[in-house]
């Protein structure tokens, strides 16, 4: 987190007399302090501790790297490492809200320093070779905690707390939870507690969302209610009203991991955005199955565009490599999502938004796994095309639907397991959203601080939202269901044993970690209230939509539309998407944007005005920026004014602020918004 907490104090202070301690490596249990002082410190920390949390070691220290430097105590528990400044108070209601806390699973790099040149990188299982004068804890969320230890007989404690951190990291699994974190909030454990946003775990949630989108030609399917079609899919999803569940079951069997075509978003003008996995070409469908697949892809439209989301965009390995390079640039001692990666994502999302809004058609996002780039592009398309998605409530619902319920493998992609599947796709999405917020600051109800809170929440193990790979795993872990008939299981779908977390909580329970004052900062003071939708139900916008060409099938690739003879790969002429893309000749990248093609070229399509509410971001050069407030948190020397304290830096900062003021149409102060907005209504608006 980037804020400090408030409330009840730990009341920890150094003492002159310290019991004798044995120096040397020991187990986490053996590194505890002697009984009298341990009992005293544990009693003081209990008010701010989570249920089941135990103090393993502590040492007086001095937080460095920030001004002013703070004296306090470095504490290692079985859940986290926390620095407790003397006199600082932690909120009893928000026990996890502290810029001084590092969950064990969030620690990416641990260094011990002695003198000017003696530095040891401490990995799990390492033995500390000297008494540290200072340790540096690098968070995977780009934060840095730098603590120097006091001399004068306290060296054994510095050694012990450092070794306790090393061993606690080694012993903590990537699925370890802060058990019972919600028990500090009255009424959180109640079974009747209403979640702040629909979690899309029930038939009723999906039906309400379908009506909200105005998707009249669609229905909620229960074919996967027992997860016997695909464990990575939610229990419910939207399919065309005229297709039977028996046809859905057979048709989905011809797609990778059983992830067949489903509605992602219905545009108020009539178009439909779908997503699905890659064709399973080794299957042998009969004519009825092929007709069902085609009917689901067409979604009642004559004009269909297939989008290979893996084309032009970086692979998972490329995304992971870009993230590692970003850490190397932004964290001292570490080896940018590249701006090109961000630009390519925004450009492709912009092109797909044009496809959806320029003609009444079915646009199908197709990725082999349907769990990474499909979610990123589908979410960005909705942010660019739907003002409702740019509200706080709408954005949270969007993430819950397109990422959490859709089965994005958060645990595999984000938990730093070193597996080949690791790639922070969701963090790349948040960076793209921040880019949009910089280019269109008056169009978004939420602020940069909200994006930072969501960015940091993937490293806080207090809920199941980002701790599992599939809806099935979350349901099993929370006890939502006890048995089901399993037909297909992905290779990483088996949940670990144990049920230590409250499954009713979600990451959207912000008041668990943030105070009302902090939640108020989630709201963007530059948001144009005229953009706020009068109703959650979208208005029909058919006046600017024109039908697509009759019986047309297109492949969208490299910024250009290429006609296809067939929709499915099992016909006489295989679909291009059924074949590995590296064997296919690719059209040259179009020099014109798709907006120019759709609204001006080709000429026989005619021209139509730019749809209201559509955002077309810049994707090149200086239009894409580094998210400094997020990525440079570990380098306070460059955070002063967000730019270097030089004349040129101040001039650049001034130009940036003037640019933001020009973009902010309304001139409403944060105080005015605070008077009109209550933190509870901000995050749980009832539409």
Automatic annotation (TrEMBL):
Listed Basic and acidic residues bias regions: 669-679
Stored PROSITE patterns: PPASE_MYOTUBULARIN
GO CC annotation, single: cytoplasm
Residue span(s) of domain Myotubularin phosphatase: 200-631
Pfam family membership, one: 3-PAP
InterPro entries according to UniProt: MTMR12-like_C, Myotubularin, Myotubularin-like_Pase_dom, Prot-tyrosine_phosphatase-like
One example of a Gene Ontology biological process annotation: phosphatidylinositol dephosphorylation
Coiled coil: none
Segments of this protein annotated with the region Disordered: 1-37, 668-687
Family the UniProt entry places it in: Belongs to the protein-tyrosine phosphatase family. Non-receptor class myotubularin subfamily.
Protein name: Myotubularin related protein 11
Organism, as annotated: Ictidomys tridecemlineatus
